Amino acid sequence: MAVRGPRLRIVPAVGRLIVIEGLDGAGKRTLVDGLTARLRERGRSVAHAAFPRYTADVHAELVAEALHGEHGDLGASVHGMAVLYALDRRGAADDLRADLAAHDVVLLDRYVASNAAYGAARLGQDVDGDFVRWVRELEVERFGLPRPDLQLLLQVPADVAAGRAEHRERTETRRRDRFESDSSLQQRCAELYARLAETGWWSPWLVVDGSARPDHEALAGRVLG
Asked: Is the keyword Oxidoreductase assigned to this protein (predicted)?
């Protein structure tokens, strides 16, 4: 596993918000599980959550339905979908703060950067464009969401991520949504994620090579310093 970026020391008893970002099929859920296990082995208390919260928030439920063709042209609206994603996170903000007060580490599978990357990719914009600026104004400045201490970009080629998503669809009977099935969108998202990490958007980033099986022990060591 190749890891690039700043070293981060987590101080015991001080909650740190660690976000894992990447394409659909990059392996984020597996990395969350593996990193959770290693951190707990090291005596750290860990909480985790995943966005969108499809079974816990009405805004996320609407997102899921729109991604599968319901609600007319809602799914075609970049800003409309982005607002729903943002409202889902706003609804979780108090729980996130409570988890940060109670745990050493809070791990998130996706967060605000996903909104920025996918929306900008759909609009053909870069990280310095109007959409990414709007997402930051909405979620960071207006909604006041907790700032990550570190964002991990699990980076894999778009075709590798697509193959994994297809396999998951076959083996888990989980139908891919319109974003997951759009290979050109996934490629553009990969480029946007790389640029967000490169520019240190909102917080420090680490770029993790997820093409092979990640070394969870090594990554936990990097996160803990």
From this structure: no
Q: Which domains does the chain have, with CATH numbers?
A: 3-51+92-124+145-224 (3.40.50.300)
Task: Give the C-alpha separation, 23 to 151, whole Å.
Answer: 14
Distance CA 102, CA 104 (A): 7
> 182 is written with which tokens?
């759009």
Q: What is the pTM of this model?
A: 0.85
pLDDT (tens digit per residue) in 132-159: 999 999 999 999 999 999 999 999 887 7
Q: What's the distance, CA 127 to chain centroid?
A: 16
217 exposure class (CB count in 10 Å sphere: 0-12, 13-18, 19+): middle
Partner residues linked to 207 by β-bridges: 4, 153
pLDDT in tens, 66-115: 998 899 999 999 999 999 999 999 999 999 999 999 999 999 999 999 99
Contact 173, 42 (CB under 8 A): no
Sequence-ordered list of residues with C-beta below 8 angstroms from that of 195, at least 6 positions apart, any chain: 126, 127
Residue written as token pair 């996160």:
223
- DSSP strand pairing (3-4 vs 205-209): antiparallel
